[in-house]
Amino acid sequence: MAPRKLIQTLLASEYFVLILTALYFLALWPFTPQLGSWRNIQHIFSNMLPLLVVAIGQTFVLITAGIDLSVTAVLALASVIGASLITRDGGVLAGSFLAVPVSVLAMLAVGLAIGGLNGAAVAWLKMPPFIVTLTTMMFVSGFAVLFTRSNKIANLDPAFITLGAGGVGGIPNALVIAAVLAAATHIILSRTPTGRRLYAVGHNIKSAAVSGVPVAQTILFAYLVSGFCAALASVLYTARLETGDPELGERILLDIIGATVIGGTSLFGGKGKISWTVFGVLFFTLLDNSLNIRGYSHFTIQIIKGAVILLAALLDTLRNRWLAAT
Amino acid sequence: MSIPRGHRPEAHPTETVSRREALQRGLAAGGAMAFASWLASCQTQSGGMTIGVAFETLQTEYWVASIETIRAELKKRGFAMLEAIADGDANRQFEQVKSFITRGVDGIIIAPKDKHTVIPMIRAANKANIPIVLYNRPPAESDAKSVTVVADNYAITSATVEYMVGEARKTGRKHKAMILIGDLGDVNSIGRRDGFYDVVKKYPDVIDPDIQGIPTEWNQEKALAGVTNALQAHPDISFIFTSSDFMFPSIVSALKKAGKYKKIGEEGHVILGGFDGDATAYQMLVDKYLDADGVQDMFFESEQAVQAIVDLKAGKEVPPIIHDKGFVIHQGNLEEASKRMWGAQFKK
Q1: Model-level pTM?
Q2: ipTM score for this prediction
Q3: pLDDT tens figures, B27-37
Q4: A-chain residues within 8 Å CB-CB of B114?
Q5: I need a surface site. Which of A37, A80, A84, B196 has the fewest CB within 10 A?
Q6: How far is A307 from chain B (nearest CA, A)?
Q7: Which of residues 189-228 of B touch A (CB under 8 A)?
C-alpha cells in the first residue's frame, strides 16, 4: 500500500488511538526494555482499570453534550462512606459477612444519588451542566472532609481489600468488574434504544425532542450512569489503597476527561464509544507509565504529557476535518 | 503596486502542492529527528545503584529543598536517581512506586501522602524485595516493613517553645498564646502540637492557659483566615507558634493588618516561633522579626535515608525509625546555626 493511502486508512480507522498507542509502545520498547516486561504490562492494565471505570461514566455524559465535574467528589464521598462502615476501628459492619455487599451497595447508592441530583438539575431545571456539577463537586467534597474531619479511614475489612487487589484464578477482580461494566455499557450505547437516544440528544437536543425522544429522562440516565461508575471506581481505588480517603481523586479530573476525549469522544456531544474510551485510557496510562519508568523530572513529565495530549487532540481534529472532506 | 479586486493572481497549483509537500516533509523530518533524539535519551544509565525517589508534592519550599538535598546526596555517592511526584494523589504515588519496582530500582525513598495509603506501597516493595525508606512521614502500624527517617517533632518543638517562653518571661508580663496546628491526620502535626502545649502548660505564670489553637490542615488560606479572626477576637495575643514555616506569610499578613508586626525590642513585638527552618524563617530571623525556629536537619535526614538503603541492601540491621534531633536557631546563635539551616543554605 502506498504511504499516502496507508496514512489515509490509518486516519479513517476506528482504531486510530489504539494504533497510535501501539506505535508509541513499539517505538519506546527497544530503548526502555522494562516497558514490555510482563510485570509492567500487568501494572499498566491494573493502573488503567479504576480510571477506565470512571471514564466510562464520563463518556455517557459527554455523548449528551454535558460534562460531569463532580465525579471526583463522588469518588471521595463514596470512599469514606464505604470505609466508615467496614473499618475495624469501629465500623458497624466490621467482621460481618454483610460488610462487603452492604458497603459496596452504600457506595453505589452515594454515586446514584449524586448523579440523580446532577441529572435532575440539568434535565428539568435546564441548568448548565458545568455549573451544576461544579457546585455539586464543591459541596460533596466539602462534606466528605467534614464527615471524616479530614482523617483517612484505614484498617478496612480484608474481604473488601481483595476487590481491588485480589483475584480468582490469576484474573484480578478489578479486571472482571471493569470488563463487565465496559461490555454492558457498550451494549447499551450500541444496541439499545437508550443508546440511540443518548446520541440523538447530544447531536441536536431540539431535533431529538421533536422526534419524540424523552430528553429529560435520557439526560438523567447519563448522569446516573456517571455517578454509578464513579462510585464503582471508588470501590476499586479504596480497596487498592486500603484506605477511605476524603481527598480521593481530588487531582484526577483532568485525567478522566483528558483520557475520554483523547479516545475520540467529543466535548460537543453526539460522538463517543466505550471502545474509544478504553483506547484513550490505555494511551493515557501507557504515557504516564513510560515517563515514570524513564524517571524524568516532574516538570519534564508535565511538559511531555501536555505536548502529547495536544498532539493527540490536534491529530484528532485534522483527522475529523479530513474525514468530513472525503 | 495594487492589484485590482478580482484580479489577484492565484498561486500556481503545482507550486502550492510542492510547498505543502515540502512543509509536510520538513515537519515529518523534524518530528522524526526530535523523537529519535528523545528515544536516544531513553538509554538506561549505568553506574552505581539506582534509587527511586517518590514525593507526594513539591508544593512547599521544604519539599523542593528536600528532593534537591537527596539528589545531591545520591550524586555524591555516584548513584542514579529516578524521580516521581504524585501531585497529592495517593493512587498516582502507588502507580509510581510500581513503576520503580518494574524498573528494578535498588531502593525507594518515599515522602508519602499519608501514613495509611503508603502501606500497600510498602507491601509492594517488600514483595519485590526492594528496600524502602519513608522520608519525613512514618507509616501507620502494620506488618509492612520499612525504615522511616523523621524529625523528632516533639523534642524540636519543645526546645523551640522553651526558648520562646524564656523570651516571654523577660518582658515581665503574662502573654496570650496562639498555635497554628497542621493536619491532624499527620503524626508530625500531632508531635508539634503536643510539644507546644506540654511546654506552655508548664508556665501558667508566663503564658495564659486559654490558648488559641488554629486548625489549618496545612493550608495557607485557612491559616490566614484563622489568624486574622483570632487577632480580631483576641487583640492581646502576643505569642505565636506555627507548626510549619510555610505559614509565616499568612501570619505576617494578618499581623501587619492588625498593626502588630514589630521587630524584637520594639513596643508591641509579638513573640514568634516556627518549625522547619526554611528561607522565609531565616530572613525573618535576620530581620529580627522572628525569635526562634525549630530546624529539621535536612542534610542529616537525606544522608540517613540514602545510608539506610545502602545498609538494607547490604543486609545490615537498620532501626525502623531514625530520628533527626534537629536544633533550635534563635537570635543568640544565628550566625553559627545558620550554617546547618537548610533555608539559609538554599537562600545563599
Answers
A1: 0.80
A2: 0.80
A3: 555 555 555 55
A4: 152, 243
A5: A37
A6: 13
A7: 217
